Structure formats: C-alpha cells, structure tokens
Amino acid sequence: MTTTAVKGGRATLRAVLVLLLLVVAAIAVRDRLPDLGETVVVLGEVDGWWATAAVIAALASQLAFAEQQRQLLAGAGVAVPVKRVLAMTLGRSAMSMTLPAGSAVSAAFAYRVYRHHGAATSVAVRVTAVSGVLSLAGLGLLYLAGWLLSTPAAWSWAALGAATLGLLAILFWDKSVMARHAIGRAEGRALAAAVINWALDMFCLVAAAAACGVTLGWWQLALVYLAVQVVRQIPLTPGGLGLIEASMLTGLVTAGMPESTAAAVVLLYRLVSFWMILPLGLTGWMATRRT
Asked: d(Cα 45, Cα 65) in Å, to the nearest integer?
C-alpha cells in the first residue's frame, strides 16, 4: 500500500470518527438544542467584569505556558528573553489550534526557536519533549485533584500511597542515584507552570459562565472542563474545533444548564481561549520570523 493511500485512509477514518462524535453529541442534546435568539439575548447581557476576567485568564494561561518553557531552557543554561519566549508560545498555540498535526508542527517550531537562541541539538530535543510531558503531567495533577475532592474515600487511598512511597524511598535510598535522577528545580518550576496553565484555562471557562449569569457550581464546571480535555487530546480536528464545542455544550446541558445559556458560555469561552489567540499567535510568529 502506498504512502498516499495510507494517508488517505487515515484522513477518511478521522473524518468518520469526527462525524460519529458529532452525531453522538447531537443525539445527547437532540431535545435540548439551544435557541439562537435566546443565546443572542444571553450574550447581550454578558457581565463585562467577568468577561474581562475570562480574557485575563486566557492571556495569563499563555504566560504560564511561556514560563514553563523558559524555566526548562534556563535549567539547561539557555537564556531566552521573556518577550521572545512569549512570542514563540503564542505562535505555538496558534499553530496547534489551526494546522493539521498542529501539535507536531508547534513542537518543530519551538525546536527551531530553541536552536536559534543557542540551545544545542540535544538540549532543544530534550526541552521540546519534556515540555510536552510536563503539560500532560500538569493536566494529570488537575485530574488527581478533582478525584480527591470528589471522592471522600480518595484521601485515605492517597495517604496510603504516599506512605508506601515514603517507605520505599527510605528502604532504597541511595544519594548518588537520587542525585542523578531526582527532578531538578527547573523541571519542578516548569511543572508548576504547567499546572497553573491548565488551571487558568479552566478558570477562563468558570469566568465565562459567571459572565453569562450561570448559577451552576464551579465544581460542576470544573468536571465538565476536565471531561472535555479528554476529547481535546485526540487530534481529530485542528484545535479540537467543533468537537470541543459540541462536547462542552453536551456536558453543560447535561449538568443542568439551560440550553441557550450553555451555548452562550461555550461561544464566549471559545472566543476568548481560541479565536482571540489566533491573531496574537500570528503576531508572535511574525516576531520570531524577523529574528
């Protein structure tokens, strides 16, 4: 089978999967589809302060992602100006949101920027890989926090696991081995930045809901957000376009939010966290290209 045929088959499979997911989402809310007129009314009454908070959270999330990469580079002895890292980060985000295989293209773009600023090939490869791993780890920590908060018995299991790990560390402690394999300060700070990145993006959704006058608890919104991230990690469409909106709308409506209000929340959240980033990303990409 030729490479072209394989790529064509993958594209067809991806299109079928996207269609199936959209059909499932439509069936889930088939009797509760939002009315366009009511959605417009909700958007017309958006609270400006909360909408501003959503914008700030989205921008701060990008800053946290930039800091995650800057810390890894600094730990490897590569000094990159903050403005340059931020420009690269915005460019990366826009690429991952709009291009097919956007995550791979985004990583390749970051690798070239790292190399341009003096990072050795091995350092550039390592920072690119570790940054991706830490992003997933940061999201995983949010899932862990959600599990601990939502499951009363989880705290006892967490305490048992921590005690077991502590005992193993005492029994097999070897300072020379631990010194070589312990997570460095730079990686620790980068992981903290990754958690903050995801938390700020989640707060962006909470602020968008508050702007639309939603009375749904923040905890329910957090659960919807975390559930949608599973869909977001599947690269069926650039930036999860279409799938995230459908999944989030389904989750919010299922959680008890009125259909028109849920649609307004999704539109506002995606406007701030997706569409607003695209022109900023283009500007960041152009800034890095000039150097």
From this structure: 32
Q: Does the reported pTM lie above 0.85?
A: no
Task: Report the number of distinct structural domains present in the chain.
Answer: 1
Q: What is the distance between the alpha carbons of residues 223 and 146, in angstroms, rounded to a whole number?
A: 8
- Domain assignment of residue 58, yes or no: yes
The amino acid that residue 253 corresponds to is V
Per-residue pLDDT at 182 exceeds 50? no
**What domain range includes position 67?**
48-290
Could you give the CA distance from residue 208 to residue 269 in angstroms, rounded to a whole number? 6
**Does residue 37 register a pLDDT over 60?**
no
In this predicted structure, what is the pLDDT of residue 181? 45
Per-residue CA distances from 269 to 15, 58, 104 (Å)? 25, 9, 25
In a domain, 40, yes or no: no
SS3 label, residue 137: helix
